[in-house]
Write a structure and sequence with these properties.
With about 140 residues, this protein is α+β, with helices and mostly antiparallel strands. The chain has one domain. The protein has helices at about 5-15, 40-50, 50-70, 85-90, 95-110, 110-115, 120-125, and strands at about 20-25, 30, 70-75, 80-85, 135, 140. The strands form three sheets. A two-stranded antiparallel sheet has the order 1-2. A two-stranded antiparallel ribbon has the order 3-4. α1 crosses α3 (about 50-70). The longest helix is centred in the middle third of the chain and has 17 residues, at about 50-70.
């Protein structure tokens, strides 16, 4: 089996962190989150937090690839075919500014970002708070 390209790896991270159904461990074993024990879910969430900076890097790369992929066929106001356009092509300046700020915030504090991902939230959903890892007074 060949190693994934950087683009494939980044895209996989982006989609993985944006889902809330399964966990994949370091040996690539896949677990349905609803079937995991509280201890396993807590350890998986802690593992994500400990690698938040690495995940942020791959996620951001994957997000940029996704946002730049042509997916909408458009026409100009003059009726001419503009071909396929990406999310970036359709973004207003204010949305672009907001998007850039979101990336800067994520880079500045990857831990605060990763605890807001659908995957992280699903891992701790239903786990008693007394069992959740605390770091500097915050729940992770």
């Amino acid at each position: 089996m060949t190693e994934p390209t950087a683009e494939e790896n980044a895209s996989a991270h982006f989609h993985y962190l944006n889902q809330n159904k399964f966990w994949i461990d370091e040996q690539t074993n896949k677990y349905m989150i609803v079937d995991m024990t509280d201890s396993h879910r807590r350890n998986a969430a802690k593992w994500l937090v400990n690698r938040a900076r690495q995940f942020e890097f791959y996620y951001s790369m994957g997000e940029m690839l996704w946002m730049n992929a042509p997916r909408y066929h458009g026409f100009g106001i003059d009726g001419r075919d503009r071909g396929y356009m990406s999310e970036f092509d359709l973004m207003s300046d204010s949305v672009s500014d907001e998007f850039n700020q979101w990336i800067e915030d994520r880079v500045a504090n990857p831990t605060a970002w990763i605890v807001e991902t659908p995957l992280y939230k699903a891992l701790l959903d239903g786990v008693p708070e007394a069992q959740v890892v605390r770091f500097r007074g915050e729940v992770y």
